[in-house]
Specification:
Beta-galactosidase, Chain A, domain 5, mainly beta, about 210 residues, four-stranded antiparallel sheet, about 5% helix
């Protein structure tokens, strides 16, 4: 990959993220802490676009795979790059689930199954920005009753926050007015050597948990 594409996404033109979709404006938001760590988020899909972290020599490396504009995300053959996934991440077998004795049918977009919210999940909507400063951006989405076949009006907030300890924290809050199912996550793809630097097959991961 061209070396210019491996630089921190601070070089992205924010105007490439300005668009009106379904009557709502999209934009790019940059978080930055005192140590130079940066995170780029767009409210189109509630996406993490880039994450530039300092190495032991304080050299910034963008470790998140992302695209350069809203148009690129809309055209991508991988629709989930960096996105907030909902109402329900992962697969619902055969696009059907039962709740309180009632059967609900969800759009099948993964063979016989429903994947990551169905035909138009949270990755494909424009979130409202309810707070933004240098360290935190908070996004809000209202999912109407029976949107994509899911019961209940669902109010969802996702918050991206940078700490001074060089951590990115993603927090979720969802409330509803009737029993429903909800399973939220972020779908970022990482390359810890830096985006465009080659394979990730030599990466090692340590999970500090009793089970996974």
């Amino acid at each position: 990959m061209n070396e210019s594409l491996r630089r921190t996404k601070s070089f992205i033109n924010p105007h490439s993220f300005k668009k009106v979709i379904d009557g709502k404006e999209t934009a790019l938001f940059k978080l930055k802490n005192a140590k130079g760590m940066e995170a780029l988020i767009t409210n189109y899909g509630g996406r993490l676009v880039g994450l530039s972290v300092p190495d032991k020599n304080s050299v910034l490396t963008d470790v998140v795979i992302g695209l350069g504009s809203v148009d690129d995300y809309q055209r991508s053959t991988e629709p989930y790059f960096g996105a907030t996934i909902g109402r329900y991440c992962n697969r619902i077998a055969n696009g059907i689930f039962k709740l309180d004795g009632k059967e609900y049918t969800i759009y099948k977009n993964n063979g016989p199954n429903s994947l990551h919210g169905g035909k138009r999940g949270f990755h494909d909507v424009v979130w409202d920005v309810i707070h933004f400063d240098n360290s935190r951006v908070e996004l809000y989405y209202f999912s109407e009753d029976m949107e994509e076949g899911f019961p209940g009006n669902l109010k969802v907030r996702v918050t991206y926050a940078l700490t001074e300890e060089n951590s990115l924290k993603i927090s979720y809050l969802a409330t509803t007015d009737k029993p429903t199912v909800v399973n939220l996550t972020n779908h970022a793809f990482f390359n810890l050597n830096g985006e465009g630097s080659g394979t990730i097959l030599n990466h090692q991961v340590q999970i500090r948990a009793n089970c996974y």
